């Protein structure tokens, strides 16, 4: 079912310093909201994430929003369904992934990576991140995968189930 997003004109500018914004933990990865969809008239949301060495997100597909990444520090590997090989992106690099295109990213470098994540339109995807954070707090660790799949699906994000080898 398609999500209908009501566009509301932003009523104020947004400025946040390096340490400002709602901080959450999404499966062990710290995220900080720099701008929410509500603040941008549902145009986009922006999160800063610190990706630990070995960390990342599994293959998934957004059905409601496009997603972009800007690497601030370190390096991430992005695997996108439309690319013949994974992309190695260092500081200053950018990636745009349109909705309905499966992608994943991870950090296989020697240092933590910092990235900005933009979701356009905002479409309220922040709620998915908040719900995963809350599920982790309730379980005092990683929530059950079925719960993560359910939370993501409710936001129009389809996580690819790991293959059984």
Please render the helix and strand layout as text.
Blueprint: E1 23-26, E2 29-35, E3 45-51, E4 56-62, E5 66-73, E6 75-80, E7 87-90, E8 94-97, E9 103-106, E10 113-120, H1 126-139, H2 145-154, E11 157-159
Antiparallel strand pairs: 1-2, 2-3, 3-10, 4-9, 4-11, 5-8, 5-10, 6-7, 6-9
Helix pairs in contact: 1-2
Task: Write a structural description.
- This protein is mostly beta strands.
- It has one domain: Jelly Rolls, CATH 2.60.120.
- It is 15% helix and 38% strand.
- The chain is built from two helices and eleven strands.
- The strands form two sheets. It has a six-stranded antiparallel β-sheet with strand order 1-2-3-10-5-8, covered by helices on one side. The protein has a five-stranded antiparallel β-sheet with strand order 7-6-9-4-11.
- A hairpin with a 6-residue loop joins strand 6 (75-80) and strand 7.
- It is globular.
- Mean pLDDT is 90; it is low at 1-5.
Key terms:
165 residues; Jelly Rolls; disordered N terminus; 2 helices; 11 strands; 15% helix; mainly beta; five-stranded antiparallel sheet
Indicate the CATH topology: Jelly Rolls
- Give a count of the beta strands, DSSP E runs of length 2 or more: 11
**Secondary-structure class:** mainly beta
Helical fraction: 10-25%
Rounded Rg: 15 Å
The helix count comes to: 2
What is the CATH class?
A: Mainly Beta
Mean of the pLDDT scores?
A: 90
- The CATH H-level superfamily is Jelly Rolls
* Largest sheet: spatial strand order: 1-2-3-10-5-8
Order of helices and strands: EEEEEEEEEEHHE
β-strand amount? 35-45%
CATH architecture: Sandwich
Low-pLDDT regions: 1-5
Overall form: globular
How many structural domains in the coordinates? 1
